[in-house]
Amino acid sequence: MNNNKKLTQSAISMSRRRFLTGTAALAGMSLMSGLWPKSVLAQAIGEALPQFTALRQAQRGILTGAHWGAFEAIVQNGRMIDTKPIQDDPFPNDLITMAPHQVHAPNRVKYPMVRKSWLEGGPLNCRPELRGRDEWVRVSWDKALTLVSQQIGRLQKEHGPQSIYAGSYGWKSVGMLHNSRTLLQRLMNLCGGCLDYSGDYSTGAAQVIMSHVVGSMEVYEQQTAWPNVIEHSEQIILWGCNPMVTLKNSWNIPDHVGPSGFQALKEKGIRAICIDPVHSDSAKYMNAEWIAPRPYTDSAMLIGIAHTLMAEKLHNADFLQNWTVGFDKFAAYINGEDDGVVKDAQWAADICGVDAETIRRLARDMAKRRTMIMAGWGIQRQHHGEQPHWLLVTVASMLGQIGLPGGGFGFSYHYSSGGSPTARGGILAGISAGNAPANGPSPIPVARIADCLANPGKTIDFNGAKVTYPDVKMVYVAGGNTFHQHQDTNNLVKAWQHPETIVVNEPYWTATAKFADIVLPATTSYERNDLEMGGDYSQLYVFPMHQCVPPQHESRNDLDIFIGLAEKLGVRDAFTEGKDEMMWLKGMYDDMKAQARNAHVALPPFDMFWASNNYIRFPVPDANKQWVRFADFRENPLLNPLGTPSGKIEIYSDAVAKMGYADCPGIPTWMPPHEWYKGPEAQSYPLSLNTAHPVNRLHSQLDNTPLRKKYAVADREAIWINPQDAKRRGIASGDLIRAFNGRGQILVGAVVTEDVREGVVRISEGAWYDPINPATPGSLCKNGNVNCLTFDIGSSSLAQGNCGHMAQLEIEKYQASAPKNTAHAVPAGA
């Protein structure tokens, strides 16, 4: 279905691909008002349950789902050959068409494999420098599970739980039962514990600072509901986000309501402004005004807006007085009372490269219109990344629209359909990780893993505390791809040589698998049974994920892998609680069914639900369609305080100030970043990097599929280059380019375009790491993994978030013969 379909073909229409039971549910089915069209209740509530069997017979495929949408899998002779989106999906994602390629990919991990030098020398004499280039040896499942369990048992006994880093991170496949990360933690908690992580790569800086500013992480909170935004917003600001791309996918199965919301805003003619160094797909879709600041200078631009609001008396003094604390200190800062520097629009323009009058006009427009600021997370994946989000809240507070219909700010409109109205029913709870043993090791900030591996005993600051790195002897990765998500890949390669043993559960030969010692072949989600909710915020759907094809080769599902390890470690009974796969799923469903019953929504028995090959769509109460974030707080801040020490929005945070961090003071400020276009490194590396979520992947997922034909240039990751920058270097579209700096070098394909401002290049993240010579540090990555260029320092002493969105670099036309791209090749012996 085309994204430009008429609104009258809305995504919220119902169809015979979902069912709802119970008379109470019918009362909740009143429809969204305003621009949201009426939907048809395709199946009467009172229809007999045996109809579900007839439905199953009439359907073409097997119902399942992925991060990119729910779909029916078309299977013939034991092979998945095609997919069909569910009819309820308003914006079906083309990525679902890759499911057959995922199942039958030529670079599947077919058997349990052990790196030759580790198998011969054991963990203490394993030649870790050969990781990524050693041969592999096939072993039996029993042998592989024995090797892994022996190392877990030995290290727990000899070095304690802090010696095993099992805080596996990444976008594991969807499914509440086969959650590889949770299953790994469940096993480790039963065996003595492990070193875990805190925070995440997506929002590491923002979630910490927002807890101090508004009393919650905010980046994962429900947003003002889309029907309310459509009805009341007069202007939206897309600050550093590209929702028409990022909303295609979700942490669970997406409901794709968010794109429908943007479509409705577009058709209503709501004014949109996009602030981004790149002219994004979303800016074009929304016909937005494009304002392109220099990368990493958002904080300066926001301060210039704040100064204009104050100087022209456009700020809401009443809101600042009654709903915030500390504005006086911020006002003194921007007026230059301490340093003599007035931080007005001209000051900001000299830093961010947007002319002063544009900054002033933007401030005035925001003040005179009901404005919803929709901000992305890329601006906080930077050095001093805490500051832009803090300043966005400060500017929104000055506008005084927080808690009003259609106004304020939201940090999740670009993620998992934030703003999709919350349904009434039940919530699936997946399998529990259990409780970590008492006196276990303190977690480390997730983005500091390479620093931890390389520097045992080092102590760092983190959110007012001290964290000391343990000596990690073993790393266990399940459901992640560290060699994609972590910054400064060449530094990671060195740090990765410190542990004695690295274990990876993985369906494919990713770079992380190639750099492991033991690889256990895991199924894709299409080779097992599971349950998942649809809509991260809406909790609108419950999807059965039916096994579509048998496990390929010798792969095992996540539950069975960890049951096998639990048995070897003597904790099988505690791990399984006597349940098999279907018993776990039935228990999860029944718990949700009980919640739904308490909400007056009746559901069929599990066996009937499962046999129907159909899904549940919960009703959405009318009140939830008009829900406004912070409305209760605005109505009465004394009775509805925020979770901050003052109960109000903290423009000045006394808690942060008392931590005494030079790189994160008690008020939001502008601080020059570690690398930028005015820094000394720009003399050698004048181009500023802008990384992006890829359009045809989810991070590194699907890089090994035919979708590459849509975006790869000469079979490499693409680099967008402004025509002026390309002309200076004699570069044309289609050329092979070496992008490089002092940390690394990558091979990319040129796309010369006006869609990126001069002085900036864009490279999407997620290309699988493929060094031309793994034995040589800093070797050219033939596939264009952008993290070979990014730097690995914390965003600040407060949050220690990652800085993966920034780097200075240079480019040149690649003159040598093009090397073969082997990113998706199977290693020797496998």
User: In what range is the share of β-strand residues?
Assistant: 15-25%
- Which geometry do the CA atoms define? globular
**Radius of gyration of CA atoms, rounded to a whole number:** 26 Å
- Largest sheet descriptor: 6 strands, mixed
Question: Structural class, from secondary structure content?
Answer: alpha/beta
Q: How far apart are the termini?
A: 40 Å
Whole-number mean pLDDT: 92
> How many runs of DSSP E, i.e. beta strands?
29
Low-confidence parts: 1-59
Taking strands numbered 1, 2, ... along the chain, how are they ordered across the largest sheet? 5-4-19-18-17-6
Number of helices: 30
Helix proportion: 25-40%
Question: Overview of this structure, please?
Answer:
Strand 18, helix 21 (511-514) and strand 19 (518-521) form a beta-alpha-beta unit. This protein has a 6-stranded mixed sheet with strand order 5-4-19-18-17-6. It is an alpha/beta fold and 830 residues long. The two termini are 40 Å apart. It contains 30 helices and 29 strands. 59% of the residues are buried. The protein is globular.
